[in-house]
Amino acid sequence: MKKALVTGATGFVGNAVARALLKNNREVRVLARKNSSTKLIQGLGVETCIGDLRDLDSLRRAVSDCDEIYHVAAQYTFYNPKPDEIYASNVQGTQNILQAAWDKRISKVVYTSTVGAIGIPADGSPGHEETPISLMDCQGHYKRSKFLAEQEALSFYRKGLPVIIVNPSAPIGVGDAKPTPTGKMIVDFLNGKMPAYLDTGLNVIDVEDCALGHILAAEKGRPGQRYILGNQNLSLKEILRELAFLTGLKMPKVKIPHGFAMTMAHLSEAWSKWSGKPPLVEKEAVQLAKKRMFFSSEKAVKELGLPQPDVRIALKRAVEWYLNQGYVKEKVQQKILNHHPNLGPLSPTPVLDSE
């Protein structure tokens, strides 16, 4: 039985990858920091190795006797008053884990990047693995850090390490405990904290399909190549409309201009520095929303066999999970359950944007 090391298994995507590996007959070791919450890995039957991406010696111990590495861990945030921490985790941490893999001659490494490290065509068509992008094109510290980390992965590939890069789009579904920015959008909608919306869009994928894509990449992917793990391109309006259908809640009617949203983000982050609380609106998120983050997963579908089920199923699962885990106000929960005792069936046809 192959043994796989998973970094980031205490988080959303990494946890889904660990679970998928166990289902696919792998022995799984997870890297966890000393003070990390282990709630998501409790009872999984995985081996836990305490370490830190910034500590190379701990990583060498973690990769020892492993056959594969799935480096999923990253600081996924659009706001950190100490941006150096983002680069330390995402860039230096990636360099360290790849160095440990190189030192131990690991036979396969899957590095989890992001579609944020892929360009978006000027004509508005979906981006693909070869769409060019430069560091200057990357808005915000998270996106820049992931671009630089991907360059580290390619550098180790050129040295001879069999690294395959996967670029997830916007995973949704069960287990987004933190939650991620995409999950926070869903939670904010459920709690009535989204009075307006931007004209933007995302490529959405069920986190379980995203996790399976990691394993398919290890089994079928070509080292040195990138694979977009995505599914359906949806405008934000379409996503909110489907959430409204599922829950019976009203979707926001007001579409605000990006300039106004950026002003609110500046004010929100200024308040955050004063209060010490997370900003309600993040500048980097608004910057990313200037373009619709639409991408094509054709390469992953053809070469890896990435599944493409109806993403509304994943939206439904996400809503159910947030309800069951207490993320939604009690009054709102009751309103949703009165509308759909079991959240009801999926709408009969895809929710398409009429604009």
Strand content: 5-15%
Number of strands: 12
Distance between the termini: 52 Å
Number of helical elements: 12
Q: Could you list the spans in which at least 5 consecutive residues all have pLDDT below 50?
A: 348-355
Using the coordinates shown, work out and report the CATH topology of the largest domain.
Answer: Rossmann fold
Provide the helix percentage: 40-55%
Strand order, largest beta sheet: 3-2-1-4-5-6-10
CATH superfamily of the largest domain: NAD(P)-binding Rossmann-like Domain
Question: Which value, in Å, is the CA radius of gyration?
Answer: 20 Å
Give the integer mean of the pLDDT values. 89
- For the record, the CATH architecture of the largest domain stands as 3-Layer(aba) Sandwich
The count of domains is 2
Form type: globular
- String of helices and strands: EHEEHEHEHEEHEEHEEHEHHHHH
Structural class category: alpha/beta
